[in-house]
């Protein structure tokens, strides 16, 4: 953005909005395909698209998401969210239909990029595995035998995160590497922060 428009914030907001909209569309796809899975198909019926659309709109328009578009200092949060959803969406698409290998490769590529974006991406390979177990197969053995290559590829992306963390903390402004706050006071403060945001999810005021 700086290379294209300098300090004009319009470009920054445009890219942020695009990232947010694409993430919302991916969430719509993830929810819809999950609702169309065998365990839920009979219960949901033809309501899969309206329900998925409602979920995606609620997520996209929630006041807590305002910073996704207005924040111009960095995009680690919004980018890791986008790549997390892209990983899950590609993994779901790789389970059935055409171009399974291509979708699986897309999931691994998105997961790898997410590992470089922010550390919370470390949970993505496990979330894909749990999602498959809940909505794809009831047998762990059958699941691992059928999709071991995907899981191995996703797990391999942990190496990217490990390599980046081995160089030192990503930032000194958050986490346990803060310069002015020691580990215990920082960890203790996070419980209040989490409770605050959980409250804001259900009642985003002021």
Key phrases:
mainly alpha, single chain, 11 helices, 206 residues
Short description:
The chain is mostly helical. It has helices at residues 2-5, 9-35, 38-44, 48-61, 66-70, 76-93, 100-117, 124-135, 140-156, 158-166, 183-202.
- Can you count the helices? 11
Number of strands: 0
Distance linking N and C termini: 31 Å
What is the structural class? mainly alpha
Radius of gyration: 19 Å
Q: Which of globular, elongated, flat, extended, rod-shaped describes the shape?
A: globular
Order of helices and strands: HHHHHHHHHHH
Estimated helix fraction: over 70%
Largest sheet: none
Mean pLDDT: 91
Work out the strand percent.
Answer: under 5%
Q: Are there runs of 5+ residues with pLDDT below 50, and where?
A: none
């Amino acid at each position: 953005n700086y290379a294209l428009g300098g300090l004009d914030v319009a470009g920054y907001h445009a890219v942020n909005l695009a990232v947010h909209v694409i993430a919302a569309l991916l969430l719509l796809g993830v929810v819809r395909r999950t609702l169309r899975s065998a365990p839920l198909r009979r219960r949901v019926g033809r309501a899969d698209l309206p329900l998925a659309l409602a979920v995606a709109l609620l997520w996209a328009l929630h006041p807590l998401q305002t910073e996704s578009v207005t924040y111009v200092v960095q995009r680690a949060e919004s980018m890791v969210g986008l790549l997390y959803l892209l990983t899950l969406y590609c993994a779901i698409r790789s389970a059935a239909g055409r171009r399974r290998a291509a979708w699986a490769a897309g999931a691994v590529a998105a997961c790898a990029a997410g590992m470089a974006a922010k550390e919370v991406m470390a949970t993505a390979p496990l979330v894909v595995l749990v999602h498959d177990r809940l909505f794809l197969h009831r047998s762990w053995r059958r699941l691992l035998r059928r999709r071991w290559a995907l899981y191995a590829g996703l797990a391999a992306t942990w190496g990217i995160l490990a390599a980046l963390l081995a160089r030192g903390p990503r930032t000194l402004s958050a986490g346990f590497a803060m310069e002015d706050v020691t580990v215990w006071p920082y960890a203790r403060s996070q419980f209040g922060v989490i409770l605050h945001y959980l409250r804001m999810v259900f009642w985003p005021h002021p």
